[in-house]
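REQUEST ID: PR-0412
SUBMITTED BY: lab tech R.K.
PRIORITY: routine
TASK: structure prediction, single protein chain
INPUT:
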Amino acid sequence: MSEQLAAAARGPVEEIGFAGIFLRFLIDGPTSEASLTMFEMSVEPGARVPVPHHHVGFDEMGYGLSGKLRMTLDGNTVDLGPGDSLYIPRGAVHGFENPFAETARSLVVITPGIFGAPFFREVASLLTAGGPPDPKALAAIMLRHGLVPAKPTPSPRAPSR
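STATUS: complete
OUTPUT:
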């Protein structure tokens, strides 16, 4: 394939950043004819991350590129490092954080490609509007795009003496 055809097949790359998270969309399913969404995600140490949630209509696969990202999937925690992958089926409650000293980078693939940059544009707009973010507005954005915030679980109590 010629370089011009390859560039045309790739399409424009959109970049979105907010709250210590930076996304670089390589394929954006909702705005392309692709049946998947693929983006590179960088998460700075201590970045504000989404609340634990599950997806209604799509699956997610994360592949570690550099650094480490702490992932929680249905109550189990794993550190996703370079060359590691984690499959997140629709309906599985998950979340992530970066408690490490190095920025974590991963490649994320969403199938089918019904979720992508439009969600992150809305979140970025809300989080960069100034002032504290509105949790109800954030939850409404999540629900509109097929993400369901998980119900908080009570933290274990320390044994009484």
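NOTES: Helices lie at 3-10, 117-127, 135-144.
REVIEWED BY: pending
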